[in-house]
Specification:
The structure is a single chain. The longest helix is centred in the middle third of the chain and has 41 residues. This protein has a domain of about 40 residues. The chain contains 2 helices and no strands. Helices cover about 95% and strands about 0% of the residues. The chain is an all-alpha fold. The chain is rod-shaped, with a radius of gyration of 25 Å.
């Protein structure tokens, strides 16, 4: 029983858990920004190609 208590105290004292959560939140933020930027670039590129198509017609 003492060993279980010791392991629980050790587990609760570790800082690996919160650090992993912080990294996950940062990764989610970075992915969101990248997807938004790629979408905006794609939309702008599409407008440029449509203008070129219309200019050639």
């Amino acid at each position: 029983m003492r060993r279980l208590q010791t392991e629980i105290r050790r587990f609760l004292g570790e800082e690996d858990g919160p650090t992993a959560v912080e990294y996950a939140v940062m990764l989610a933020f970075i992915v969101t920004v990248c997807i938004t930027a790629i979408g905006a670039i794609g939309t702008n590129t599409n407008v440029i190609f449509e203008d070129m198509r219309d200019g050639l017609s």
